[in-house]
Write a structure and sequence with these properties.
The protein contains twelve helices and four strands. It has 298 residues and is mainly alpha-helical.
């Protein structure tokens, strides 16, 4: 390599100096290239936060948060607040069942009673009693229970429902031969039935369902609906006909006839739930609350 001498004559640079300059230029270029790739390398090699890391961070954050006193914490908390929930639309939530040990035993008792006593009787009853006759008997009992639906419709402010119940009772008792035929539901009249009870009335008034409870012989219920059953019995004429007009034996026979007839109409549906349920107790509990929520909301 040539370099111009101050006197105008060219001079030669030592090859060692040329090599040193070239090496410096090469190293500078490598440093620049290496520096430009460090940032993407960190990004590419960054590992996503795993579920374990997230749980660890969440646990640490929760521990730190738990150490802070909540100024809005209510010292008078609901004793059932931690048991579960009651009437909500989320079917995945857990219902309040603080008495589960006792409930499961009562549930097993009812199940065995149904399996070895009620179901065989209802099966035999279903075998010789025509479906039309079964529905006629159900219609008669339903028509007789009109006061329960009538008064609870009034208590809930559903005066149109009370009017429908009175009209249905009048039509079915006369044209329907004591309620054996549901003439009021015929398209000529088009008066649809309602199904109001005291438990629904309490719910409309703002009462919470309370914990889940399984009643002997009567099956799934709640504290609110269980209390409502007492008022329902007081509003149904069958109660007074059975135990005041008829003898005690005839009274139990009337109730037994209603239960047997109703059970015979639901033999297949009940068996399907039992055979397809992994946890029959939980399935019945969930079905009960869903049914009650739908009834309250009409």
């Amino acid at each position: 390599m040539k370099h111009r001498h101050p006197c105008g004559q060219p001079m030669l640079l030592p090859w060692s100096l040329v090599a040193l300059i070239a090496s410096l230029i090469f190293l500078a270029g490598c440093a620049t290239t290496s520096g430009s790739k460090e940032a993407p390398t960190e990004t590419v090699n960054a590992q996503p936060i795993t579920a374990t890391d997230q749980q660890g961070h969440a646990s640490a954050a929760q521990e730190a948060f738990d150490g802070i006193d909540d100024p809005f914490d209510d010292p008078f908390e609901d004793p059932f607040a931690d048991d579960a929930r009651s009437d909500t639309d989320d079917p995945n939530a857990i219902y309040r069942d603080p008495w589960e040990p006792a409930n499961t035993k009562t549930f097993a008792f009812n199940l065995n009673l149904d399996k070895f006593f009620l179901k065989p009787i209802a099966t035999a009853y279903d075998w010789f009693m025509p479906d039309a006759a079964q529905h006629g008997i159900k219609n008669a009992f339903t028509n007789l229970a009109m006061p329960r639906r009538f008064f609870n419709s009034i208590f809930q402010g559903k005066f149109d429902g009370a009017g429908r119940e009175f009209a249905r009772f009048t039509i079915n008792t006369t044209a329907g031969i004591g309620g054996l035929f549901d003439v009021a539901s015929h398209p000529f009249f088009g008066i649809e039935p309602s199904n109001e009870d005291t438990g629904q009335t309490f719910a409309v008034w703002g009462a919470d369902s309370g914990p889940y409870v399984v009643l002997p012989l009567l099956g799934p219920s709640s504290v609110r609906d269980g209390i409502g059953l007492i008022f329902d019995a007081a509003l149904e004429p069958l109660t007074y006909i059975s135990f005041l007009v008829l003898t005690t034996t005839a009274g139990y026979g009337a109730y037994g006839g209603e239960v047997t007839n109703d059970r015979s109409l639901h033999l297949e549906a009940f068996d399907n739930i039992e055979t397809t349920s992994i946890d029959f107790y939980t399935s019945v509990q969930d079905a009960y609350f869903q049914f009650r929520n739908a009834a309250i909301k009409d």
